[in-house]
């Protein structure tokens, strides 16, 4: 097929598949095609540019079968360059407990019922079986604790389907219900592991299998080759693993750009008027209402909304404000691009207004022409079709996991409003004669704070999701950040910003190796929404002051080009640091000063570790 030919050509040329090819690969659900694609992509070199390296160890209670090529294909589709290392056969528990997998980005665990059930059990003693399952769960918890003590890797588990061959072998309806209850409780306890160990994540395979109506197992292949899952089930596990890896690697999207006519409501408002659009009530209006409700739910969790519609702006604003079934009011959108300009140009303008890359956008539209034009001019934008039956729109929007995050923070919840006020600042700036006068009028306040158990999650999220102002590209995860935050040889700090328009929340973070003479900044990240105010220079001044107070004579910073962080290339020199013989390293001596801007005040907050 054409897609496979395109992948072969990319591998032959030693380059990453382009954005359009990866988007096409992301739409593939046939496990046979994914297997072939994954085998082809195994030929990609480790130095290929355009994909983010990602190491995965795979541990299985049986044979992993075609999981490796299927997983590789799904990860490449997400923009990752995977290195996949299968564990040893029949050594699941030993490999996990000893952490022999080393230090990968992710450990993908494939379990089947054999881990929790004895090889022989009695259908007349369901209570005894439940006790055995509970003991095995305790053993798994202990093994996971041992693994996470030895490695900072994140371990991804899944809930377990109960095979019908086991369930239906219990002929008593009461006992069968008791067995199912035991299994549901087991899955509930597996899901609860995420609250007990921050390095453990769990995907709900049982729910996904039920939603997709895919058989969990091929009985013949299970008996013949000890394959615990069917190819279809492995494809679903790989897709869920991709969603997790995408979030962990900072490749999730932040912005949802939406058309209006035949997307957020039925009909063309310019033709039928506000009263004539289909929204709420019976089908199909209820479909559009449900889509708006789902979009509002995403916004409540931090997804930034952009309106991109070819329409009369006043009519659109009146309809959004006054229609009784409209869930999304005008203020729900951080930017409204309602005009007759090409939508690709409008999305680019919205990205500039919000200070975000177009690669952080997802665009949903019913028009093949508009989708095609955006895909052609802005290939980094993820495209969703709102064409066809509106009953499917919600599934189209959410099933890929474009906006997944590992953990939701307060800053996430505030993000849409923060970006809306960014546009208000732009309007405010037009009344001043000089940029400096405008910046002084903003009353900008920077608040540094050493990391605590309450802020570690947000700091790690910034490392994972910040791409443009990310000085070295090191994406410290939550476990590593937590360990450094309590180490006397390290400093981990977050930075909050507020001004006359409101509180931006935690927008930056720094990780520092604190030696007796040299403080080395191993990474520094800052949200793009606060760039342009010299907050980063004030941040550098704070780091330098802390280092000098600790007796260090040199502060050392690094900049490693990533292809996406060019906006930060001159940061260290602007902050007064001197370039060394190593192009990546910059130094500030004890007698040097950072030209801190007078329009940013620093208000340090003292945090208490517990």
From TrEMBL:
Gene3D superfamilies xref list: HAD superfamily/HAD-like, SGNH hydrolase
Top-level taxon of origin: Bacteria
SUPFAM superfamilies in alphabetical order: HAD-like
NCBIfam families: FkbH, HAD-SF-IIIC
Entry protein name: HAD-IIIC family phosphatase
Organism field: Kutzneria chonburiensis
Lineage of origin: Bacteria, Bacillati, Actinomycetota, Actinomycetes, Pseudonocardiales
